[in-house]
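Contributing: when you submit paired examples, paste them exactly as shown. First protein:
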Amino acid sequence: MIVEVQPTSPAIEHLSFKTLRADSDSAAVNLSSSKEVLNGARVVHGGILTAPLDSAMGHAVCEGRGDLIASTISLSVSFLALARRDIKVTRRGRRTVFATAEVHGADGTILAEALDCFKIMKEQTEISGNPYGMSV
């Protein structure tokens, strides 16, 4: 049974991934392998895979901490093999949290590893600026 752990955001809805579970130590996210998330080689695009990795680690960092939110400071992903699905996350920390995540294939092989660094904030009002006004 899939249970939404946190309200979805427009980005999460657009990329069609769901948080299956989250606690203070780990989280699991499922990413749909629909054709919209595939690259030219017909496997999940690395950039698309990075979003659920970051989101899953954020869920694990914030779960059970009340109204705290986590904002990504730094994110590094190593792609070790062609990734298809399954994300698992572990973490520990306080105000600045380092989290790690792995993407596992159906056979359990590690396909990608990620390291994320988050700043933990007490309330959403600590975020300055207009997030929708950002340019890349």
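Second protein:
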Amino acid sequence: MLDVENLGPGQRCRINIKTRDDRLDEIDVFRMGHDHDLVGALIRIKESIALKVTLERTLRHAHQALLHGLG
């Protein structure tokens, strides 16, 4: 399994989060480019709706920001 820190360009990994209503959900995290400044995530809001998020942070900070923002 890929770790968020070790994603190569175009690679994806899924992380599980617990939402405010104690539901488990998955976030598809992916690397946007050759550097660590662009990180994206597809966040499933409902079954048919996904929100694409692009963060300009390191992978570790982006991962923490996603978990904090959705938690």
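If you have annotations for the second protein, write them as plain sentences, like these:
The chain has one helix and four strands.
Residues 59-70 form the longest helix (12 residues).
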